[in-house]
DNA sequence: TGAATAGTGTCTTTAAGACAGTATATC
DNA sequence: GATATACTGTCTTAAAGACACTATTCA
């Protein structure tokens, strides 16, 4: 749990559910790079994924969305619940006992204050195109920035585990459902979507087989336009067939890479 | 939330996490039938899946196990988290406001008591062989019994949805990982495991292709014994190769039915 | 015409799916 | 020998995977 959240829930304890929160692993893709949005609470040297408490009036999905919106300024991002984390070690941390809390905040609190009990975290991941994001850090965050998924800073609690589980879930998802609508421009080239899949999966995919299979699903449509990319052959542009895409999200699209 | 749980958490509020609980959908298999263990709290006419609060000293997995043990008397059952449920409508229910609560229990409580806020439910499912289970109903349950999955009684809250999501998760699991170790005798016949798969998936599977594929995974081993089943040809007995089975649980076993 | 990237077709191998007749045990 | 169940092999079709050359653009 982050210092800022402790403050927030102390100031407005009545509007939040207790002992349960949402952690939302925000993945950002841009130009063959996959990154994750992390924040560093003031007065702590470790980083956390974005997360927050759940209001009594909202669902866990709404909470995950609200958190993503508050950091990225974007709505209608693709997001997905992947699993919940909950065990007593989630509270064994320097910030999670009364003495340390008082030292950090100057506020005196009883030893058995309920916020020192562990919190069950419901994990979501969210996908976004990171060049479109104007990061808005929270008032209690010293920093909020993108980190490459294979070069993460020191993370609080089990957040490294949460990120790796989120990535595992994302890679499983990509093998069964279409992906990319929120990550590419409306019109995109075959090499662009090819790179997206390679980057998320972290492995090369044969370009001929990739194009063959992707076209076979019908979720993308070739346009009669090309994109000029300089001193090279101009690639054709494609767009998603939103109907087929949504159908794929519902029923699965056979793209088992 | 069940009446019994409300009592329990009122009597011992300090040992449990607040606003979060575990619901454990216990599936029972026996003789070509798949059932789910449901309980009916005293003074209510609707049924619920088994569930309970999470102690501050235990993980959500330990809580799910404790619940399964308390109802079935069995340990080391196969269980799996599938997803969390949380939205404000989870608290709109006859038992979830102060007036009704007082009417049912005779205990006066304030209108804004925290237990009337909604609870996030972390959903697990558990598999067991139901002829081995001696059902132990909780002190606050009027009934606790097996129900066929395609003939359920009226269920509280979103519990029908929880069961259908659990079943969906189980069927997804069975397509990617081995299953059955906890559901069959140590030695079993091909027709027995064939029926198990057909029952869980709810559809017929070609017997020749099933045997071919199952043997190809190496997770079962043919023994040099047969089982006498009366006036018919005696089927051979098989057992699981526990090493291959566990490896399949870790890395997946290609059995995409 | 050289450099960089786009785009595409064929063959092989493997897996999935459909399908039916023989073998065995007991009465 | 009648009956009920166990057991298994082949063919067809579809998908996956490996693989390399031609086309375009522009400097």
TrEMBL record, chains A, B:
It holds the Pfam family WHD_NrtR. It comes from the Bacteria. Residues 17-169 form the Nudix hydrolase domain. This is Nudix hydrolase domain-containing protein. It comes from Albibacterium bauzanense.
